[in-house]
Amino acid sequence: MLNFLKKKKLAAAAAGFLVLMILAALLAPLIVPFDPNEVDLDRVSRSPSRRHLFGTDEKGWDIFSRVLYGARLSLLIGGAATAASLVIGGAVGLAGGYFQGPLDSLLQMVTDITLAFPGLLLAIGITIVLPPGFFSVLIALSLVGWSSIARVIRGEALSLKQREFVEAGRAGGASHFKLMVRHILPNCLPLILVVASLKVGSFILAESALSFLDLGVRPPAAAWGFMISAGREYLKTAPWMTLFPGLALALTVIACNLLGDAARDYLDPRLKM
Amino acid sequence: MIRYLLKRLLVAIPTLLGITLIAFILVKSIPGDPTYALVGERTSAEVIERNRVRLGLDRPFLIQYGKFLANISPLRITAPGTEGFEGDPAPSSSPFKVPYLGRSYFTGSPVSLMILEKLPATGRLALGAMLVAILFGLGLGIVSALFPGSFWDRLCSLLAIGGISIPVFWAGLILILIFSYHLGWFPPSGMGGGALIFLILPAVTLGSRSAAYLARITRASMLESAAADHVLTARAKGLSRFQVVSRHIFRNSLIPIVTLAGLDFGSYLNGAVLTETIFSWDGVGRLAMNAILQRDYPVIIGCVLFGAVIFVAANILVDLSYAWIDPRIRLGNGD
Questions:
Q1: Nearest C-alpha in B relative to A214
Q2: pLDDT per residue over A57-112, tens digit each?
Q3: CATH no. for B114-333
């Protein structure tokens, strides 16, 4: 893996950036120069300076501090939504591919129906009927995101099921559950890793879109999407309000996708597109 | 061909039913009692009960769902409890009607008519975006595939990653900042009564993501078909490079390209919500956005359902285009 990263400088840079971002998010309370929610009307809409690296917004909030706090939210939601949709999608895909028959048909129908919705629209539909907040966003993203994972894992489980080692396990008297979890699932891991790494970026994007539409976590909690939407009104006079949160968002998602692409090339070249 | 078409349409029916079921569940989960929204909260319990019965809210779930289906169906189904709505432009004698998606909480007008009214603007934006996506996506993808590993290939790949990763709404704002505020080349917002110059920035914003996807899939798909034996044969029999690329490589790469393009175009309403908001483009996406801000639930869910139906329709069109691209599918042995 280290050798691989050496060859792929871009992927290495992406990995480095993400590590930095995660560290910044974890340590945000220690490194932010200003309280992200402290309103100071003496420093409203200042342009970037040495004191305020990314400038301040119309409420006098320090944008650099809020971008760091936004990283916590984005990475947390991205990670949690990926984990949740892996659990749902993995269970559905494994069960469908392993048991086949009517259960599989039913599960596939549900998967297809979920896939038939344009993702953001379905997420909007789900978030508006839930009380606003972190968990609504998480639920909406996971309910939308599991289906593509289920489809990929089902295909893999279907083909793994035919292999000799599963046959051997069955002959040895292993239960269905044991066959699925101990024999098939570990062999899906490379695939799962690739899908997951590509999914994180798309969840981070979706979360920012929801909070841009004012459907995400409630302010004053810092969310990149919300900061960008707040900066819209001041685009002409205070473009840094829009520029920096968006830059952080774009770079994070680019890094996730670069890393996902590299993971795919390394672990499973068949998925290359 | 007809048989293939019918088969595809039949397969879409359970999907459509599932979509409507989800939309119905969303409608049922709207916070608050819909009768309050209709008659206001300062009404006696008796009036509310009467309205609940009138709206059929006291009936079992499946019956309510059936009524919902009859209402949103484009066919005129007269079942007990279904209501026609005034303002339906279709004549009452025709077997078709405009689907009824409920009424806006705020203006009281039927949601389907509101969507229909905004549809031409969104259609124009989507066409513009499609043009951007095809022009840039295919262009970049083909250049990458013709010179794999070159500087241009790597530049195209990087552009494609950026196009996929950069949020649509931020890209739009940055384009406005550069091309409207600093350079003054394009107007920052509005539709300008249909002037083409107003379309350019929104179309680039909405189309860039698709362009990036298309470039990636075009590159991969062309590289794959370039490795096939028939390409070697074509080259060996002395065809020009242009002929080999256009007739033997490109044509055989079309299936994945069309699949992805079609599916992506089907989901334009996703991006349209964001793009139209930023550019004050008066289409379905902005309608949805305004409804979200006002918590105008019938309008939001109407737009979600509309988007899903468009998506399924795009899926079917993609399948039909396979038959056109690849005669093996048309003749019925490609299942």
A1: B293
A2: 777 677 777 888 888 888 889 999 999 999 999 899 888 888 888 888 888 888 88
A3: 1.10.3720.10
